[in-house]
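Q: What would this chain look like folded?
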Amino acid sequence: MKYVIILGDGMADYPIDEIDGKTPLEAACTPNMDQMAAEGTLGLIDTIPHGLQPGSDVANLSVLGYDPLETYTGRGPLEAASLGLELESGDVAFRCNLVTLGPIENPMMEDFTSGHISSGEAQEIINDLNKEMGSDTYRFYPGVGYRHLMVWRRGQEALETTPPHDITGRSVYHYLPRGEGADQVIRLMKRSQKILKDHPVNRNRISAGLKPANSIWLWGQGKAPKIVRLTDRYSIRGGMISAVDLLNGIGKYAGLEKIHVEGVTGYTDTNYAGKAEQALAALKDMDFVFIHVEAPDEMGHEGSLAGKIRSIEDLDKKVVGTVLEGIKNFNDYRVLVLSDHPTPIILRTHSGEPSPFAVLSSEKHENMASGWSFCESSAKKSGLFISPGHHLMDLFLKGWRSFIEEKHS
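A: My prediction, written as structure tokens:
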């Protein structure tokens, strides 16, 4: 049996007046996901346990079959794994965004991506920050785009920090770190602003009419989690395809091999088709491939309705469509498509409501074939609700047949 998961990050949403009360999923042209919902099995998955903040870290742990209440320690250590960093017992890893803050007299979170700064520009900045601010206590590591990492040796983790994408357009004073160790973290953030004010990369970006990366923002801290490898639990070999360190880090903890795809960016210009083609190629040797597409989430954070619809349509045509056509070359398969969490346009950040999923199996009797389309309202009407969400992986990999037969009975 071959298994493929296609995850559109933040794809789910709320009804929007501008498009006659439809969600972006309902407004988008998605014949391939609709086929999966109509011919396969459609339902809702609850990926965010009560008491945890909605986000791709918690949600994707759930999708991969881990109970976040038992395994989640923070976003930072998951991204550290992707960078190949071995955290010692006292190390605390922080996500380190390069951000654009507004006027210094009352700084606002103008852009949590620094205008989607390129990885090359960002690497130069992070390396220079590490030269100026790095020490035996603090180390900075470059990642992808605006997403980077800081490790605090023997640091404090019991801090209250805020994701920068939650406070776009707001004064940052109300969202600075709080708790034991907050003074040190704030000091690093303020020192970075002095270093970055006249950094050559920023001078060039300003000259080109682009937003400068004029500060770091530290958040998502935690120590290394204890996670049993997914590949060991199910005796399978699998791979992860993603442009972002978070998913690649989760994949590494799960025992999934990172599958390289040229041209992946974590944005709307990513190589959608390349992800699907590489996944199909990997399945010749692997049992399981997870394809992650970040673009719908980025469009939700930007509040771009047109961009979100376009990214969903690109995912459907270039990823889902390519996979559905190519997977026919394998005799036995299951394909799962889903959103990990909503990133509503109106909120411009994550929310914790359940999201739609659809599974299409080569075994016809495993499909409920309800005729529904792939969207939030149809998934709710289906009556199939997986909660807590981490149970879906076990059903998908080994128990789908009996589960569907029970639903049919």
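The first helix runs from residue 24 to 27.
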